Backbone:
């Protein structure tokens, strides 16, 4: 956790906008530049910034590892679920036209929106998982190092060479 | 076709998509099942479904038909086409069949070798790997092959490292480096072809490649593809990742991957060599399959020789796999309907033989706790059924008549003899390599039957859930060795369709 006031306040100000921008890139992706992949990374960056400033433990309390590992699989299920839905509606796998029986273009629009949402969910969750894993390792190594340092201190005090 | 949109859901029409979609949807669901044996039972169910699908697909194409499925309703060559013909239906059946028979076996092996809290991830990885390999096989799109290759490779790295043996981590990392290199080469090859032709559909590539075939770009593409694919199926001298990968991973993973992963890569080689580059006159003097022949010969000689000196049973089997891959590539390199038949039928024959052997090795590991050959002393007395199955499948590995191994070598030698003096030399080397196989199988037989078991060991026969799949495959080794109607005829039909020869 970072104790300096400026980054803490700035992060607090920025994080909502980062998350909002992530959602904008997500759902505006079919009109402008963007899409699920970019949106997922931006959204995850917001969470990662929170973890960098306020510490890994607090971030894990907000976005629990259990939730993240659920979302990794859930995003893929959303994507594949659209494909299964089109199959059940009598078209080929991922043939979005089948999603709306009246207007195929509307169906295609809906299809791409939902699968991109699935991509976004999985990418954000995977980014957060990767960050948690690496940051978690850092915590473990630091604990190990401090244990070793303690041992060395004790050795110095008792004066026994290695 | 978008006109089909109003026709309602048809199971049979969507089989090609379901072949890949079923395991793909099942994998994330599998990660939610955290109760005891839940992921295993679910994976088994899914595997049975994929096997049923591939059996149906094979039935549909056996008459010589080709099934074409338009992903997302986009017509080829613009969209991704799933294309099922005799050869890939055969490979689909091998992959899904081995997964189905390896999963009952996996239950006890995984329980012991994979930490309990990772079971749901292990079986999800298994299903993803299955999905990737089926996808590589069924797709008719060159870039889609690369995508599924990545899916199967990434899950393979995870499966290899999922056990408790820390050496598996280095082995998986080694495979990650080499596998990524191979995948990159394949991507470069596909990219070059795309630049030259503007298409990614394999059938379309074959048609459009003709006018531009005599260019450096296309030759470079062929070279990149061949080397990249050879890295994936561990052809000598790109085999270094294989022995450690198979030896230190959980036994069930060894069973599954040894019987499927390399076979799928060989199928990709066949697809590119024959369907894409096959009909190009400019390649007649630069036949990449023939260029692979010397490597194949060295692979089976070196593989068999090194296997003799292994002290770890799984490593021995892995080195033997390198030799067997040599036989398959030798068959492809010899060419002609006979050579290709030998290569393709050996895909199937080696899959059941090596899966049976790895199953027996895994059963030994479950009871003995070590793969060191000396620790298996007297195992023939304490685990008679497992050892007998090991010896019988070992005979098939050697190529004793009445086993499937004999069928493969028969066709391989038959193909070799059509090539004059060089062919006689190759046939002699195949026989020499078989003699080396006798030596490494005999080492196990000697330790298992002619040495006394260590007095302080309490070893019992393997559980029934392992014995049944093991014996099913062992009997398969003999059944398909005597009744060659299925395997050889399908392989011959596949070879003819690849070469464009009418039967």
Residues:
């Amino acid at each position: 956790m970072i104790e300096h006031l400026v980054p803490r306040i700035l992060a607090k100000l920025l994080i909502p906008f980062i998350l909002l921008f992530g959602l904008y890139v997500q759902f505006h992706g079919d009109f402008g530049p963007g899409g699920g992949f970019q949106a997922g990374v931006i959204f995850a960056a917001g969470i990662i910034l929170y973890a960098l400033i306020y510490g890994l433990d607090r971030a894990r309390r907000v976005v629990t590892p259990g939730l993240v590992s659920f979302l990794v699989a859930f995003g893929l299920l959303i994507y594949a679920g659209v494909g299964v839905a089109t199959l059940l509606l009598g078209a080929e796998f991922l043939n979005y036209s089948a999603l709306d029986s009246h207007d195929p273009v509307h169906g295609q629009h809906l299809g791409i929106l939902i699968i991109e949402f699935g991509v976004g969910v999985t990418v954000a969750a995977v980014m957060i998982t990767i960050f948690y894993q690496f940051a978690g390792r850092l915590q473990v190594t630091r604990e190990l190092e401090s244990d070793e340092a303690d041992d060395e201190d004790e050795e110095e005090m008792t004066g026994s060479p290695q | 076709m978008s006109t089909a949109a109003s026709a309602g859901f048809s199971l049979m029409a969507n089989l090609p998509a379901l072949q890949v979609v079923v395991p793909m949807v099942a994998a994330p669901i599998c990660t939610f099942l955290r109760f005891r044996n839940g992921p295993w039972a679910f994976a088994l169910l899914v595997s049975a479904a994929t096997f049923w699908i591939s059996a149906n697909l094979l039935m549909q194409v056996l008459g010589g038909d080709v099934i074409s499925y338009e992903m997302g309703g986009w017509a080829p060559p613009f969209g991704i086409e799933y294309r099922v013909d005799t050869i890939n239906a055969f490979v689909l059946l091998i992959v899904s069949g081995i997964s189905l028979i390896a999963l009952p076996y996996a239950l006890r092996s995984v329980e012991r070798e994979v930490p309990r809290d990772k079971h749901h991830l292990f079986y999800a990885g298994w299903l993803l790997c299955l999905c990737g390999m089926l996808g590589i096989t069924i797709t008719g799109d060159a870039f889609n092959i690369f995508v599924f290759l990545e899916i199967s490779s990434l899950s393979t790295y995870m499966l290899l490292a999922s056990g408790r043996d820390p050496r598996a981590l280095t082995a998986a990392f080694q495979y990650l480096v080499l596998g990524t290199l191979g995948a990159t080469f394949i991507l470069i090859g596909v990219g070059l072809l795309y630049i030259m032709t503007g298409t990614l559909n394999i059938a379309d590539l074959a048609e459009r490649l003709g006018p531009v075939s005599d260019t450096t770009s296309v030759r470079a593409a062929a070279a990149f593809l061949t080397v990249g694919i050879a890295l994936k199926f561990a052809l000598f001298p790109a085999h270094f990742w294989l022995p450690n990968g198979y030896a230190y991973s959980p036994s069930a993973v060894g069973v599954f991957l040894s019987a499927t992963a390399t076979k799928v890569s060989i199928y990709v080689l066949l697809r590119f060599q024959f369907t894409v580059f096959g009909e190009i006159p400019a390649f007649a003097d630069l036949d990449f399959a023939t260029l692979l022949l010397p490597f194949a010969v060295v692979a089976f000689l070196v593989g068999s020789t090194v296997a003799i000196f292994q002290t770890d049973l799984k490593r021995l089997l892995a080195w033997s796999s390198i030799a067997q891959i040599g036989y398959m590539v030798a068959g492809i390199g010899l060419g002609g309907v006979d050579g290709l038949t030998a290569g393709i039928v050996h895909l199937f024959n080696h899959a059941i033989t090596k899966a049976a052997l790895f199953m027996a090795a895994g059963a030994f590991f479950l009871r003995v706790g070590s793969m060191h050959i000396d620790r298996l002393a007297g195992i023939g007395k304490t685990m008679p059924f497992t050892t007998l199955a090991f010896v019988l499948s070992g005979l098939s590995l050697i190529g004793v008549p009445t086993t499937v191994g004999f069928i493969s070598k028969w066709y391989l030698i038959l193909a070799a003899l059509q090539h004059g003096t060089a062919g006689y030399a190759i046939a002699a080397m195949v026989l020499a390599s078989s003699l080396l196989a006798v030596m490494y199988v005999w080492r196990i037989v000697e330790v298992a039957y002619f040495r006394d078991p260590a007095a302080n060991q309490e070893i019992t026969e393997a559980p029934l859930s392992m014995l049944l799949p093991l014996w099913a495959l062992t009997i398969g080794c003999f059944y398909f060795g005597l009744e060659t109607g299925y395997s050889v005829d399908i392989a011959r039909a596949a070879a003819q369709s690849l070469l464009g020869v009418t039967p």
